[in-house]
Specification:
88 residues, mainly alpha, 0% strand
Amino acid sequence: MFYWLLVFAGFLVVLALSQWAIAGLKARNININRWIWALSAFLVMIIPYLIWPHMNSVASAFFYGFCALFAVIFMTEEHSYFLKKGHM
């Protein structure tokens, strides 16, 4: 039970960070295509593992955090795109 509470709390932290990042970028009039967010969610894990195949757990956790952040930003931007275009 405690594990799932930690996972849920971690998701809430990632969600809050993604909303903060999106708001900060939009305040500076920086618009990044949603597909770049999707690609970066994968590449942030693939490229470091290609360079350093035996990465320690702290660095892996750091990159997994960025992967989760970019994936949530992609999903948020994709949802707003669909709402804007009237597909939903």
